[in-house]
Amino acid sequence: MLTIVICVGSSCYVRGSDKVAETFERLIKQENMSNQVELTGAFCMDHCSMGVSVRLDDQVYPEVYPDDAESFFYNEVVSRLQRGV
Amino acid sequence: MRQIVEVAWDSLNKHGEELCGDWVKVTTAPNTLTVVLSDGLGSGVKANILATLTAEIAATMLERGNTVDEVVETLAATLPECQVRRLTYATFAVLQVLHGREAYLVEYDTPPLILIRNNDVVELPMTERMVAGRAIRERQFMLEEGDYMVMLSDGYIHAGVGGLYRLGWGWKNIAVAARRWVATRGDAHQLTRALSQTCLKLYNGTPGDDATVVSMWVRQARTATIVTGPPADPKLDSLMVSKLMSAEGVKAICGGTTAQMAARELGQELVVEWQPRSKSPSSSSPSKIPPIARLKGVDLVTEGVLTLSSAAEQLRKAETIHDLPPAQDAGTRLARLLLEADEIHFIVGNAINPHQLADVVRGKPMRLIYLDEVIGQLKRRNKLITVEHL
Description:
The complex is a heterodimer of chains A (85) and B (390).
Chain A: E1 2-7, H1 10-14, H2 17-30, E2 37-42, E3 52-56, E4 59-64, H3 69-83
Parallel strand pairs in A: 1-2
Antiparallel strand pairs in A: 1-3, 3-4
Chain B: E1 3-12, E2 22-28, E3 32-40, H1 44-63, H2 68-78, E4 90-98, E5 102-108, E6 114-117, E7 120-122, E8 127-131, E9 134-142, E10 148-152, H3 154-157, H4 171-182, H5 188-202, E11 211-220, E12 223-228, H6 237-246, E13 250-254, H7 256-266, E14 271-272, E15 293-295, E16 298-302, H8 305-317, H9 330-340, E17 343-348, E18 358-359, E19 364-365, H10 366-380, E20 384-389
Helix pairs in contact in B: 1-2, 8-9, 8-10
């Protein structure tokens, strides 16, 4: 099980963490991955001056923007699962 | 626990008048509550000025420790004389309450105070004496938890005159109505609203006189402590958290970083109650503010600047807790918590969040600007606010 944590602190929320979450949610459904991926929220990850912060297990990606959410999902989330990490 | 008197009031203007000739002034100090209701002679501007002056002078002087005799003498000497009636005239009722218990009531030509205790209207025999040529009635008495009091201007007594009630609603009928209503154990705001709506109905929507009601309810004080922002010096983190946790009453944290700091200090897990949109109940109307979080021992945990701004907006629109929407978002919940409390202590951390823009003109972080607005809104409602910076 891979856990995706999206920051919903002030800064990330303003930058569209909601939209990022929505995209992830849609893609998880579309790719039938709901038994492999868990989506949840957290407050500040200390990278407020960048983009929306997303944490995959222990690694923080501080610059995910709503527009890149889809490519991030395929490049990072899906490939991580395929690598079996 | 401390006992306090919750106060709410409402005035109906005489039909066609823009200004009310009744005036209510409520002041709260840590141990003293002063409520003054004044009814100026006539209606409109003149009555409004007389009533305002009377209530403000009385409240200010009493707050400074002057006696009622001095207040009455001052009023007699300073109020302008009515050109038409050659009278200097505004009635007043003053109720001073010490420590939420010891009450001192003074009335000058106003309908008597209605006191309801254990579902009964209690008679309050008054002592009459002359001060500066005027007959005032006074009385000292003790308040008990659960007591309700109603102060009225004579517009209430005359409501419905010639209509539903030939001689007007009348003190006795109003006391009975209040007693029946009070059996529902509602708060002062609800009692005020109920009486005010009945009065307006009796006047058929067009009051023949200014009509004012002040409702009071004696109950235990509700306290709340709010922490927002981490301290400027991280060494004070544990102090801030222990201050919050040892506080009486409801506890809240406004700020994501602050919440994480508190969770770390407490060794507890901070769980953000974030739900994917498809599962959240209000999926049709996306919330404009971040979700709340759960932290053991703290009643409400929210994000900071956006939630405070939303709470400030709610407080601009809703006068009492009954005006708030039933929503469960962080901003509404914070506003509800604040409106429910009588005594609110804010512990404000002075750490600067380098990632957030300060308001350049006011030289302050936006979080504190919204906090100032929230505090102003709460003070306007006579809540006792204390602020501590760390």
